[in-house]
Amino acid sequence: MRAIANHVQATILRGIAECAGILPRDRQKPILMIEEIISTDWASATFLGATHDFSLRLDGEAAPVAAALARLAADLCEHDMTIPGHIVAEIVLQPLSGLDVDQAIVSQHFTVNALTIID
After folding, report:
1. What is the pLDDT of residues 41-51, one digit of tens each?
2. CA–CA distance, 91 with 2 (Å, rounded to integer)
3. Which of 16, 66, 73, 116 has its CA 20 to 30 A from that of 22?
4. Separation between Cα atoms, residue 27 and residue 42, nearest integer Å
């Protein structure tokens, strides 16, 4: 298990933010918070790689948070993430609990799991 973030994890995090439509210069955007990242070496008979578990949180106004999560749910598995020397073989947004959009400000926890293999 690796404890320090690396370029693979950083690229996946940027891809998650891009897919959610969280642009760095947008002051009205939800804030993407990293709670925990766990990467574990992975191997099959023919491939080497790692699994990455991202425990994340979106904080902000209810409507933009709901819209960002909807984009992730719809598009994350198809979002192109280019990582030199690696391939994102699979990326999955874990099912979300209900989001109370009646509140003005919300905090939504979610998990993304990714499998990368060395190219």
Report:
1. 999 999 999 99
2. 19
3. 116
4. 38
Question: What whole-number distance in Å separates Cα of residue 52 and Cα of residue 13?
Answer: 11
Look at the chain and count its residues: 119
Range 62-96 burial, b when 16+ CB lie within 10 A, else e: bebbbebbebbeeebeebebebeebebeebebeee
Read off the pLDDT of residues 7-61 as tens digits, 9 standing for 90 and up.
899 999 999 999 999 877 777 789 999 999 999 999 999 999 999 999 999 999 9
How many Å is the maximal CA-CA distance in the chain? Answer: 50
Residue with tokens 């994102």: 88
Q: In terms of DSSP bridges, do strands 105-118 and 48-61 run parallel, antiparallel, or are they unpaired? A: antiparallel
Q: Please name the residues in contact with 110: beta carbons below 8 A apart, sequence gap of 6 or more.
A: 56, 57, 58, 69, 72, 93, 94, 96
Q: Report the Cα–Cα distance between both ends of the chain, in Å, rounded.
A: 20
Would you call 43 exposed, middle or buried from its count of C-beta atoms within 10 A (0-12, 13-18, 19+)?
A: exposed
Q: Please state the domain extents for the chain.
A: 7-118
